[in-house]
Design a protein that fits this description.
9 helices
Length: 310
């Protein structure tokens, strides 16, 4: 009997926000992932990178301010750096945890690129805020370089586009490792957005939403399950209200109705539900589980969490 193929999507809670926080967080995350390996799942892991890519972008920008001979790192390079940095911590912590349980299994990180459409509407109206808060003078410099800036209460921030992904460039490499029963970490932070021009891939000044990639990765791999680990044990109706109540299970049709009712937060739960729907539309026999990291072991036995099916 073949193993169940599962794509695991890790949220911010699994990684922390600083170098020290991340080192501590991934040790706990590795335990939850190792539980899945022990339960005989074949894992492909993707993860968020919001705080990490922002930290790298800030550092590279400040380096350019102090040492003018340095070139500011474009967003695609910052994304690549964050993929390598986060993947390095996850794979080492997971490998160590598996060995402590007597399990010898390769764990690999693949720097993953995602093609995007250069004419995607997102490039004409960037909305994703990144990096440090700037003064008016620094913001003007960014605008003069052709970048977009918004004014918030704390100051000015650069904003970039968040286009929809088209293809996972390294999908065949990911499939090969997954089919060999290796643990694969891929599409970190939504992947590195690139534009294909005459068979040459060029980095785009953009970021890709991590939840949309989780759904696409699961469907491209024809995974049996998509496990989205976030900060809550369940998806809730009327979240944050006195009438809040958990959803233990729902169908794609029910999820679509809840979206129309405005039940899910636009920047937190909604992208996860949309990713679930996208995956299940392509893999009708699949299953999505949304729960918190610490409830992973119970969630795979459907003792906790929200289960979404076709």
């Amino acid at each position: 009997m073949s193993k169940k193929k599962v794509v695991v999507a890790l949220g911010h809670e699994a990684l922390g926000s600083t170098i020290v926080e991340q080192l501590d967080a991934v040790k706990n995350t590795a335990k939850a992932l190792a539980d899945l390996v022990e339960a005989d799942y074949q894992l492909t892991i993707t993860h968020s990178n919001g705080p990490q890519v922002s930290m790298i972008h800030k550092a590279m920008t400040e380096l350019r301010r102090i040492y003018i001979d340095y070139t500011p790192a474009p967003m695609c390079v910052c994304s690549a750096m964050s993929q390598g940095y986060v993947g390095y911590d996850i794979q080492n912590s997971l490998k160590s945890e598996l060995l402590s349980r007597g399990i010898s299994k390769p764990v690999s990180t693949i720097l993953t690129q995602l093609t995007v459409d250069p004419y995607d509407d997102a490039f004409y109206e960037p909305k994703k805020a990144i990096g440090r808060y700037m003064s008016k003078e620094d913001a003007d410099l960014e605008v003069n370089k052709g970048n977009y800036v918004i004014h918030e209460a704390e100051g000015y921030r650069r904003v970039v586009a968040a286009p929809k992904p088209i293809d996972i460039v390294e999908i065949e490499a990911i499939k090969t490792l997954a089919d060999a029963d290796q643990v694969v970490i891929a599409c970190g932070g939504g992947g590195i957005p690139v534009i294909e021009q005459q068979h040459i891939l060029k980095g785009a000044s953009a970021v890709i939403e991590k939840d949309s990639i989780a759904g696409k990765l699961a469907s491209d791999l024809t995974a049996d399950e998509l496990l989205i680990l976030t900060s809550v044990d369940y998806v809730y109706l009327d979240y944050g209200k006195d009438s809040q109540r958990p959803i233990t299970s729902m169908t794609v049709a029910e999820a679509s109705d809840y979206i129309k009712e405005g039940q899910f937060g636009e920047t937190d739960m909604l992208p996860k539900i949309q990713a679930a729907i996208s995956y299940l539309e392509k893999v009708p026999g699949g299953k999505v589980i949304i729960t918190s990291l610490n409830k992973t072991a119970d969630a795979i036995n459907e003792k906790v969490g929200t289960v979404i099916t076709r």
